[in-house]
Amino acid sequence: MGLLDVLRFGFVDVSGTAATVTFLLILLILLYWYSTSAFSKLQKVGICHPPPLPFIGNLLFFREGFWENHNKLINEYGPACGYYIGRRAFMVVSDPDMIKYILVEDFGNFTNRMVPAVTSKPLADSILILRDERWKEVRSLLTPAFSAAKMKEMTPLINQACDILLSHLKDCADSSASFDIQRNYASFTLDVVASVAYGIHVDSQKKSRENFVKNSRRFFELSLFKPLLILTIAFPFIMIPLIRIFPNKKQKEVNGFFISAIKNMIALRDQQDANERRRDFLQLMLDARHLANDISMEHFDTFSQGLEESKAAANKGLLKKQPRTLSDDEIAGQAFLFLIAGYETTNSTLSFATYLLATNPECQQKLLCEVDKFFAKHVSRHHA
């Protein structure tokens, strides 16, 4: 090999290495730009926030939980602050006047909630996910179902679940053995949701193998594999389409069960005589399908604004035509939302309240006296 050949080989080798290094540098610069390019949104509008990390934002800020760290965030960055989870910006508002302005005075600009990247039925048809005009229509149809008088109609069903809970707690107390109170409350909460939202009577403490109980617990056990969750947060434009292409088979089965359960119950209710139907949340939604002459509630956005405002709007000719009624899919969506919103929250609240009462006997005694006093007053009034 001649000198010229050696030099040519060295030149090509050096050029190849330089090209590789250049390509890697460009790739790293692009990755860094992508990982931080979304982190200027809050700063542009004057919202303070913790320094975000590339790709994941402030995810690690909440690694010990959301409640305490939200308080820490507010104390450190003010009543209107923010943070990033991945590339998505979030704003935290804790000032009461500002919250009132957002939820009441300027509510028309804040009707839509953040839409999850991947949403499937029945949740996709719930009021949590619906947007714009359809959200307003469904809300106006559902609002009457939450009046104090109609909610009171469900009291016997809730009392029935309470009796089952007390029976199980008595068995636990009589056994003198330790037991998991949270499990009892989980069963109680599930019994209430099954009864008022799905029209199904279950005793999930004793009949844990019933389909409704099994699928409810399967749903709350579903979760993304942690590395997959982090990848989805960091690279949503790649991971979200992949998740949609390769859906979770177990989740599809669970969702299908709840859709089928509610539609079967709707068909059964339609066949029943009106006097035979249970007065529950499901029936109130079914009744809402036939309220063709009700006044639309579009022009008042809180329950405190009542019938007088709707009449005034009607006199001015502001009310639009009555929205189309709830579909079976939307009824299934609201019932499923009832399960999501009511199960874990109620269970955790009851469990924590019981723990506090058990560790603070003076508060327990005070509560017992107040309950006895209220009960005595209620009984005397009833007999009078």
UniProtKB/TrEMBL annotation:
InterPro entries: Cyt_P450, Cyt_P450_E_CYP3A, Cyt_P450_E_grp-II, Cyt_P450_sf, Cytochrome_P450_3A
Transmembrane annotation, as ranges: 6-34, 224-243
Catalysed reactions, as listed in the record: an organic molecule + reduced [NADPH--hemoprotein reductase] + O2 = an alcohol + oxidized [NADPH--hemoprotein reductase] + H2O + H(+)
Predominant location: endoplasmic reticulum
Keywords of the record: Endoplasmic reticulum, Fatty acid metabolism, Heme, Iron, Lipid metabolism, Lyase, Membrane, Metal-binding, Microsome, Monooxygenase, Oxidoreductase, Transmembrane, Transmembrane helix
Superkingdom of origin: Eukaryota
E.C. no: 1.14.14.-
Swiss-Prot/TrEMBL cofactor(s): heme
Entry keyword annotation includes Heme: yes
Pfam families in the cross-refs: p450
Location of the protein in the cell: Endoplasmic reticulum membrane; Microsome membrane
Keyword Oxidoreductase: yes
Family to which the UniProt record says this protein belongs: Belongs to the cytochrome P450 family.
Role noted for this protein: Cytochromes P450 are a group of heme-thiolate monooxygenases. In liver microsomes, this enzyme is involved in an NADPH-dependent electron transport pathway. It oxidizes a variety of structurally unrelated compounds, including steroids, fatty acids, and xenobiotics.
Protein name as catalogued: Cytochrome P450 3A
Origin species: Gekko japonicus
Gene that this polypeptide is encoded by: LOC107119575
